[in-house]
Amino acid sequence: MRVSGTADLWWKNAVIYCLDVETYLDANGDGRGDFTGLAQRVDYLDELGVTCIWLMPFYPSPDRDDGYDITDFYGVDPRLGSHGDFVEFLRVARDRGIRVIADLVVNHTSDRHPWFQSARASRDSPYRDWYVWRDEPPADGPEGVVFPDQEKTLWQYDEQAGQYYLHRFYRHQPDLNVANPAVRDEIARVMGFWLALGLSGFRVDAVPFLLETAGALDAEQLPDPHQYLRDLRAFLSRRNGEAVLLGEVNLPYPEVRRFFGDEDGDELTMCFDFIGMQRLYLALARRQAAPLAESLRERPPAPRDGQWATFVRNHDELTLDKLSDEERQEVFAAFGPEPEMQVYGRGLRRRLPTMLNGDLARIQMVYSLLFSLPGTPVLFYGEEIGMGEDLREEGRSAVRTVMQWTAGANGGFSTADPSSLAARVVEGPFGPEKVNVAAQRRDPQSLLSWMTRLVYRYRECPELAWGDCRILEHDAPSVLAHRADADGCTVVALHNFDEKPAEVTLRLADVDPGTRMVELLAGGGASVGEGGRVQLRLDGYGCRWLRVLHPGETTLA
Ligand code: NOJ
Fold first, then answer.
1. d(Cα 269, Cα 472) in Å, to the nearest integer?
2. Percentage of residues in the chain with pLDDT exceeding 70?
3. Coil, helix or strand at residue 439
4. β-pairing verdict for 318-319 and 347-348
5. What does pLDDT average to over the chain?
6. Which residue has its alpha carbon closest to ligand 1 atom 6?
7. Which residue minimizes the CA distance to atom 11 of ligand 1?
8. Cβ distance 12 to 307 under 8 Å?
9. Rounded distance, CA 539 to CA 365, Å?
10. Known catalytic residue: 205?
11. What pLDDT sits at residue 140?
């Protein structure tokens, strides 16, 4: 496929890397990461092949929801640095050709935000109508608390205000009222501010909740919430034509598709594939490809210029909320049987390598899948070195421990402050001596070396992310075989979910006998036989990517 087209629509085969500045690299020695430290590690990310950094919230915050509770949308938390440090980091990233996006958390504020402080103090406050108030919780209001361990209701009575306010998440996170035009204007100003400093877009937090009108926002003021999303996207594109909105929309596929907009895709540029992620774990638990293959068949195509964002793990619980109760129990039994490994009754608070008992071949196979499936892969920091979780940490914090740069307890962070984030040893599944960047970069067999190789092959094969994806039929239930086609180029990928080796016969009906298939992740290859038949063998948890060398096509591999 021609690579020239991939530069404009950069997000369609990007490598996105999510990190929290606070846990990344501590440059000033206070036991907490900072922007100066992050700038020092841009070259590391460049070497890995990352093309876009997603910054988790770095704004001033009382930190009762790890920074997703914000008191100033225009600020930088002084513990992480200044605006100057932020801009310096952006400059370094831009110099290395890496774009930066950041969390846009405008469904709610912290209850300590000056807007809320003013709103609750008086009905006459200009900020009163920036939040959603009721004298009584409405009977027709939204349902379902997100954090059932902490909250029982979505409406909190506020003594000072004399009314109830809506909070989709924790009670200390009152929802903003986007039906109010003044709030919508302010959100646009916030976006414009960070775009002007050099961001290339936003990961938009909790999009369906932001737009929820039924019993919450005033439907008369906001008759078509999707029109608001279209307005936001249009504003973004006016300010920066290459900027993206990457939305958190954990809903069934047909509903997620609506958040991309109609055929013209004028709402969110990208949406996370939560369904595919959950089906992947079911497939891993069953050691069968079918659950994942089904989701790939069901997944609606993104609009022409849009893209799905695929992932194995993120900073939250590994949610299994879209599986059936029985399916969820299967995944729990396989990967998180102990109650302390589970959270909210719907998810796991573990990272992948520990769930797979440190089985390197199996872990490598999962990442090979991630990079070969259609969509743009999003990595969560530490995945590239196989970091594990720390179950002693509360709730979702188990997977948010500090990045391990060097061997030993603190991974390179200062532990001068015993309460610092780094004061605990995080046991990776291969042992602390191996789960750190310093050890892995010296080892060509390490997970880090594998990930770097995968990233480069993926970038060299844009048809994987962009192309038409077809699941290939064969007789081995443990194997997912798919092909990606674009501009007359074809890559075939195979993944074995079982520990037993497997052999498959594929039929590439449109490929001439004698055509060579070149192996992309290792040496060797295969040759297409009569009727387009190809016989391919896979090791237990094996994975193979093969480029079909159509007449006149060349490859570096
Ligand atoms: C979604 C974020 O991913 C999560 O970490 C956060 O707690 C909630 N939104 C509330 O902001």
1. 29
2. 95
3. helix
4. antiparallel
5. 94
6. 68
7. 68
8. yes
9. 11
10. yes
11. 85
What's the gap in Å between 341 CA and the centre of ligand 1?
A: 19
Residue identifier of the C-alpha nearest atom 5 of ligand 1: 316
**Interval 270-290 mean pLDDT:** 98
- Atom from ligand 1 closest to the CA of residue 105: 11
User: Who's near 256: CB < 8 A, 6+ residues apart?
Assistant: 249, 271, 274, 275
* One-character DSSP codes across 293-355: HHHHHHSPPPPTT-EEEEES--SS-EE-TTS-HHHHHHHHHHH--SGGGEETTTEE---HHHH
Q: What is the 108 CA–ligand 1 centroid distance (Å)?
A: 10
Distance 547 CA to ligand 1 centre (A): 40
Q: Which atom of ligand 1 is least distant from the CA of 107?
A: 11
Identify the pLDDT of residue 3: 82
Which residues does a 6 A CB cutoff place in the pocket of ligand 1? 65, 68, 105, 169, 205-206, 248, 316
- Give tens-digit pLDDT for 484-500: 999 999 999 999 999 99
- Choosing from 248, 266, 267, 389, the catalytic residue is 248
pLDDT tens for residues 14-72? 999 999 999 999 999 898 999 999 999 999 999 999 999 999 999 999 999 999 999 99
> What is the CA(68)–ligand 1 centre distance, in A?
6
Q: What is the mean pLDDT of residues 150-176?
A: 96
Nearest residue to 354 (alpha-carbon basis) of 316, 383, 396: 383
Active-site hit among 205, 212, 317, 327: 205
Cβ–Cβ under 8 Å, residues 372 and 458: yes
How many angstroms is it from 67 CA to the middle of ligand 1? 9
Q: Give 552: exposed, middle or buried? Use CB within 10 Å, 0-12, 13-18, 19+.
A: exposed
pLDDT for res 407: 79
Identity of residue 133: W
